[in-house]
């Protein structure tokens, strides 16, 4: 076994009091094995009915050898047997951070979960689902540990179902989704912090003894300041192509908490779940509480392989229509903001057709009459067309869009309410706020209480009625711009349940919506990237990475997001932000699902012509970007330039994006960039595309083998007057 193999079960020790010496004994145990195409997870049931984590690593060719894992490590004290618990409880033998803590109906706070049985379900093709049934020895308190192995994707999903049959409510004071135990010589955490217009800022640190916590207490936009997605390297030299790496994250759109605890035995315990901050959940008898899924993958070949696992799984199992198509679009926001009318919108529909994109998106400002939405200070909640701006309603725009030959989409922010609105006047008890304290606004608005079923019905009906009245609507942009201040629900009898039930209420609305409109494209926007997680992306076709659309900043954000989220889900728009030329902006947007937020009248004729040609170029390569495998060649934080490529499934085509990010001094690349992922036996025609005028410096009709490109490389000739270069490879007959 290599030094990076993750081995987790330490031999138990018994103290022989008569001999006053420690004797090592191997208990009678049984293993529960989950396998994907490349990795394996093994759990162990000890003789005393404890369930421990035994192994997470490369899949072994001989499955019976998993039983030998327990012989490879010996522990120093008998109490450390709980260090490897698959779901550590508090109040009895566990001395470290628990995965679950409870207060029983009688006030007792102890819990000791023992194995009852397990079920191994392989009835769904490509998946293995193991359920382990556990029960406390004294109380009628039950926990199910769920593990799902996605075979081809090399992804594990893990969650927990908690229930009880006590006479009164049991208080869940901590209720994690997963409890992993890793063993290695060292651990390096890459996590992501940020803020509005500064999302996904990476930070890498060596984990030392104690607890490092990633968490959110914002209620909504919960990934705004900290992401729940992370990478753990098991070696100091881990990088894109080498080292053992675990990538994971919590698929939850509410408050999260992930603890990384390096214990006295130098193991790393990862406990991930809903944040128990202000959320000691009151669980009724005979009611099942299901935690969100914690999703992770293990790669022994660096971060790149782990990313491709995540992308493949997301496209197959999470994103709406993840293997389908997307709509390129023109958005009106930066051309009009709130100042528009029907005439302007009709003109923008013509511009959409002229540009050559698929859809026109009408952004904020189309609604509200008593309190018109002419700024961000009013009308949220009053979802009727503003009669002054749109006297003939949305229907007239959809009709005109059909006439012009483009699709039409619209912006909504249905979770929010403006204090200056008719809805607030009619339903003040629907608002999240402390009744006896001053209101405190985030972006001049408050949050509707989605823990309340009446509010859930209102939000669903808002969307449903909009689509019923306008059935040709082809796209929804769902925004969420506020966090929760003064958290209080007039609906909840126990305020500890509010944060959890708010997020569950959001999911109920989205589930109803997707049941009725399963394929409608919908963008997840949360004041930028404040809600990028696979809990919400289960209902959306794409996400908005940031309100910061400066292409230099976006290179870094899009690069970091690509560790976990595929290009087909990343909505990248060309805007007026940034001082770079139009080619650079478009090249950066092409990294994902391209859109435009420009006033075409402000473009020079040659810029408009270039943009139109760029749309056609993108149409020719978007299938590779959306459905190909991603390989990152150069990290912009390490080399002053970014380089990455998408390669299609049969390795016959590839698109390489290169961006110069060091712009304070004269700089150019003087050596070739080595490729990954090509077929070494294929020959490829090398062609620079999306050219601005005649700036091609790549030799025409160059043909290079995949072997050459991966061992020698290709220099895209980035320099100060060539700040972005896009290269297409096409296999020759």
Characteristics of this structure?
733 residues; 10-stranded antiparallel sheet; 12 helices; 30% strand; alpha+beta; single chain; disordered N terminus; 8-stranded parallel sheet
What does this structure look like?
The two termini are 44 Å apart. The protein has twelve helices and 38 strands. α6 runs parallel beside α7 (498-516) and α8 (551-561) runs parallel beside α9 (582-589). β28, α7 and β29 (522-524) form a beta-alpha-beta unit. The strands form seven sheets. Strands 8, 9, 10, 11, 13, 14, 16, 17, 21 and 22 form a ten-stranded antiparallel β-sheet that branches. It has an eight-stranded parallel β-sheet with strand order 30-29-28-25-24-23-32-31. Strands 7, 12, 15, 18, 19 and 20 form a six-stranded antiparallel β-sheet that branches. The protein is an alpha+beta fold. The chain is globular and about 80 Å long. Helix content is 19%, strand content 30%. Mean pLDDT is 93; it is low at 1-27.
């Amino acid at each position: 076994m290599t030094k990076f193999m993750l081995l987790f079960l330490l031999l138990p020790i018994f103290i022989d009091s008569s001999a006053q010496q420690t004797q090592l004994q191997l208990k009678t145990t049984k293993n529960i094995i989950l396998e994907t195409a490349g990795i394996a997870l093994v759990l162990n049931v000890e003789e005393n009915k404890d369930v421990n984590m035994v192994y997470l690593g490369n899949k072994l060719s001989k499955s019976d050898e998993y039983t030998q894992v327990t012989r490879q490590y010996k522990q120093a004290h008998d109490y450390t047997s709980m260090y490897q618990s698959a779901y550590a409880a508090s109040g009895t033998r566990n001395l470290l951070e628990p995965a679950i803590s409870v207060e029983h109906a009688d006030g007792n706070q102890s819990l000791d979960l023992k194995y009852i049985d397990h079920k191994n379900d392989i009835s769904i093709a490509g998946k293995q689902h193991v359920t382990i049934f556990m029960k406390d020895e004294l109380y009628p308190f039950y926990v199910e540990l769920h593990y799902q192995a996605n075979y081809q994707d090399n992804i594990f999903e893990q969650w927990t179902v908690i229930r009880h049959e006590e006479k009164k409510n049991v208080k869940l004071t901590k209720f994690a989704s997963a409890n992993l135990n890793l063993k290695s010589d060292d651990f390096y955490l890459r996590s992501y912090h940020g803020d509005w217009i500064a999302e996904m800022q990476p930070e890498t640190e060596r984990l030392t003894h104690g607890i490092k916590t990633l968490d959110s207490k914002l209620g909504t936009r919960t990934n705004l300041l900290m992401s729940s997605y992370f990478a753990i390297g098991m070696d100091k030299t881990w990088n894109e192509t080498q080292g053992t790496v675990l990538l994971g994250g919590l698929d939850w759109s509410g408050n999260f908490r992930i603890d990384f605890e390096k214990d006295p035995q130098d193991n790393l315990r990862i406990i991930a779940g809903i944040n128990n901050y202000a959320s000691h959940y009151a669980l009724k008898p005979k009611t099942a509480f299901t935690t969100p899924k914690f999703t992770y993958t293990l790669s022994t070949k660096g971060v790149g392989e782990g990313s491709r696992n995540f992308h493949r799984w997301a496209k197959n199992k999470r994103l709406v229509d993840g293997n389908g198509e997307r709509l390129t679009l023109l958005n009106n926001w930066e051309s009009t903001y709130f100042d528009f009318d029907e005439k302007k919108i009709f003109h923008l529909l013509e511009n959409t057709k002229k540009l050559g994109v698929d859809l026109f998106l009408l952004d904020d400002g189309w609604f509200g009459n008593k309190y018109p939405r002419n700024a961000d200070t009013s009308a949220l909640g009053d979802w009727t067309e503003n009669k002054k701006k749109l006297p003939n309603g949305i229907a007239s725009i959809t009709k005109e869009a059909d006439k012009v030959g483009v699709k039409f989409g619209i912006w909504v922010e249905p979770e929010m309410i403006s204090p200056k609105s008719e809805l607030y006047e009619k339903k003040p008890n629907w608002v999240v706020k402390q009744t006896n304290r001053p209101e405190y606004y985030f972006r001049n608005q408050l949050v509707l209480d989605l823990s309340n079923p009446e509010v859930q019905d209102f939000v669903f009906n808002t969307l449903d009625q909009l689509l019923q009245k306008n059935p040709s609507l082809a796209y929804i942009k769902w925004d969420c711009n506020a966090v929760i201040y003064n958290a209080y629900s007039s609906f909840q009898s126990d305020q500890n349940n509010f944060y959890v039930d708010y997020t569950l209420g959001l999911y109920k609305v989205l589930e109803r919506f997707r049941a009725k409109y399963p394929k409608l494209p919908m963008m997840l926007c949360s004041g930028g990237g404040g809600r990028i997680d696979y809990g919400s992306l289960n209902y959306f076709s794409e996400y908005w990475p940031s309100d910061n659309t400066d292409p230099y900043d976006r290179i870094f954000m899009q690069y970091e997001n690509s560790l976990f989220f595929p290009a087909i889900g990343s909505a990248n728009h060309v805007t007026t932000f940034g001082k770079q030329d139009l080619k650079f902006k478009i090249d950066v947007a092409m990294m994902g699902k391209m859109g435009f937020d420009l006033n075409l009248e402000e473009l020079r004729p040659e810029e408009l012509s270039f943009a139109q040609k760029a749309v056609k170029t993108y149409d020719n390569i978007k299938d590779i970007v959306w459905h190909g495998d991603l390989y990152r060649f150069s990290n912009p934080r390490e080399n002053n330039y970014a380089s990455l490529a998408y390669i299609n499934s049969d390795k016959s085509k590839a698109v390489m994006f290169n961006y110069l990010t060091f712009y304070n001094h004269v700089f150019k690349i003087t050596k070739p960039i080595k490729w990954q992922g090509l077929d070494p036996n294929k020959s490829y025609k090398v062609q620079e595309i999306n050219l601005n005028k005649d700036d091609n410096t790549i030799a025409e009709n160059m043909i290079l083998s995949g072997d050459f490109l991966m061992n020698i490389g290709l220099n895209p000739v980035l320099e100060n007057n060539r700040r972005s270069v896009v290269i297409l490879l096409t296999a020759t007959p």
